[in-house]
Amino acid sequence: MFETVRNAFKIKDLRKKIVYTFLVLIIVRIGCQLPVPGVDATVISEWFAQNNSLDFFNQLTGGSFSQMSIFALNITPYITASIILQLLTIAIPRLEELHKDGEEGRKKIAEYTRYVSIVLAVVESAAMAIGFGNAGYLTEGVSFTSISVIVVSLTAGSAFLMWLGEQVTEKGVGNGISIILLYNIVSRMPEDMIGLYEKFISGASNVTNGLLAAIIILAVIIGMVVFIIVLSDGERRINVQYSKKTQGRKLVGGQSSHIPLKVNTAGVIPVIFAGSLFQMPIVIAGFAGVQPASGAGASIGQKILKVLNQNSWCNFDSFGEFKYTLGLVIYVVLLIFFAYFYTSITFNPQEISMNMKKQGGFIPGIRPGKPTIDYLTKVLNSIVFIGALGLVVVAVVPIFFSGAFGADVSFSGTSMIIIVGVVLETLKQIESQMLIRHYKGFISD
Prior knowledge:
There is one protein chain. This protein is mainly alpha-helical. The strands form 2 sheets. It has a 3-stranded antiparallel beta sheet. It has a two-stranded antiparallel ribbon with strand order 2-3. The chain is 71% helix and 6% strand. It starts with a helix and ends with a helix. It has 19 helices and 5 strands.
């Protein structure tokens, strides 16, 4: 990795792109410190310190949400809009046609994504402004002017970040939106590492325990990263043979190829979907002043919220608290369900089979048509199950250490998948650009 980056800096064009990307990230960091007019940021920070239901959302925004900066919404509306458009591609024939229409169709879908992002930003910012106003967190009180200023500020900040992301994609390195998301997550990791150091290493009873804690922390982090790399790069290659065709007096074709099926076909989407379903009731209840609770005085609703709260899982202090780990079982089931659900939407064995048949391709030992569809479906179901189990491991390990040992960190399994995936993808793009430049130089010589 470091060798790739070092070689990239030797190339003038790539060096300019990398510097441009870093300058954009500096702008993002500055924007995360600019407060929204009319909001009491101190009160918001105190509310976040007492309510951890929005920790994951705050992490995706690089902590700007807890500071209530103009980038508080960050690129989350764009991410949500992208997922919505991707799901609607299957349900709406027009979008499906655009998706298959090549570059022009993808540009049109990207345009629709921007529009939906703005709408979501307006709705989310309005809901936040009204909610904070009713809670007394606005310095100017609840009025049309104060609400409008907050909505415009947050929506403009989200739109500006979306534009910056597109500029990085065009003039920088990697996917701009992914780079900004990666930067937001990584920006909070030093604070988490300091917290782990103070609690388990410097706060240990003796040097031996502190050293053992340091080794365990490093082993878990390195092991997670290696496991995610293997999960992200793992694929099942299905061999495809193309029949020869007669063109004039010659036989052409007959080459062999393969269909790469990713082990983690759904990516990080199942974790996001499952986490969102669990967090939504907690967030709504939090704004309503209802917190997860247990014990004799807790209501049924508070106990249900306790089951949904990840901080209540894997607590071995007492059986009364450990029973709330039932939520973890439901969470794992949802992860596996959404892995199959999202894969069924994004990968169509029937379409793959038809395209192979049109091009004269076939899987050795499998007849074209329905047998090919059945074979692809069978292989895909096996791969999805393995990938889903991998996602379960990645998602559950941080939750286990948090509940069992109190190792509270902002980055979760979802964040680790995003970090590793974006870094690998960006490095591949840098290497491909270096390779293209090498070929151009070879041809010019």
